[in-house]
Amino acid sequence: MRARIALNIKSVDYEFQEENWLVSKSELLLKSNPIHKKVPVLIHADNPVCESLIIVQYIDEVWSSGPSILPSDPYDRATSRFWSAYIDDKWFPSMIAFFFAQEEDAKKAAIAQMEEGLVLLEEAFGKCSKGKAFFGGDRIGFLDIAFGCFLGSLRVIEKADGIKLLNETKTPSLLKWADRFSSDTAVKELIPDTDTLAEFGEKLQAKMIANK
Amino acid sequence: MAGECVQFLGFWASPSALRVVWALKLKGIDYEHIEEDLLNKSPLLLKYNPVHKKVPVLVHNGKPVAESLIIVEYIDEVWKQNPLLPQDPYERAKARFWVKFADEKVVPDMVSTFMKTGEEKEKAAKAARECLKTLESGLEEGKQFFGGEAIGFVDIAVGWIGIWARIVEKLKDVSLVDEETMPLLHAWLQNFLEVPIIKECIPPWDKLLQHNKGYLVKLTPDST
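The joint structure predicted for all components is written out below.
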């Protein structure tokens, strides 16, 4: 989803190939990403680019005449990269831990970690947005994309467990940002329906548990 | 650059701090080195990196940047001399890919090799060698460095892995960067560590060995 949002922001025409990787991986995927054998992969002029945030930066650098995805100031760029790395390396693992937790205690611990992270991201939003609508300012930027792609999964957890991970008390700015992000033209058709995503999540969970 | 204030919070044995030191030296940047005692972290470190509380941190005109690879990209963007990342977007994407691969695949297997013993150690070393062999495919035959003719982002990011591989090989009696099966990677490591500006930043070999031996003793009290 990150790559597609970036392509939409830049108004780049692209051919989308859905990979049904839970079942099997296509020849093209295995050839384009032989090392990790994973999506997403962007193929541009026969050159494959792998890893979602690397793809987003690539898109930003190639289609430089479109709206910028990374900020122009090096310090702001470093800040965007820092929080994106935090999301991928620290926050997202706690979401994974929640999905695979089988006992209540483990689930509660994962939720607590996610909530702690969201409080940090709420603070980061305040600093990065500088009073504007998105982490990137007036428009969706790198950090919006990095974090926003998880909103679908957040909603799955909220619906299934009846908790409000984004809420008025602890994350009021992120709550409003989430609506703005989801309804942005570059994003709105890409966020999966909560029930469809929940169903996919169950299949994935079953497969992972079976493989252990 | 006149009027710039650059401070660097590091720890002598930290591999990620070494990445930043190499970048600073390659760019010829003047900076104040602040050595951190990781067992007794300074208020300055906790103030400048409240999220992770780790080194390295670069403080440029009072503004902190944390996470070694993010710092290196920041340095490359602010100080334009001796570019570390390639200009071409596809080459940049490849460079970032290899660095991520090294950190996420090579390093964990090397850590396992370091921490385990017996059969498990051998299994981990085999996995590490496979990842190192894959990493080797990022090197172009005929070019000295991952960056081509000059040291680049990947060399700086991955260089410490080569140093540490030698330490693990010595302390754990395993082979990691094997000359026979990975001739290009082996040659790259030899060349890279001998480049004067790189070599002078590496802590003394004996001190590094002793420091890492210390970890081994803590992990496996029966090991020598």
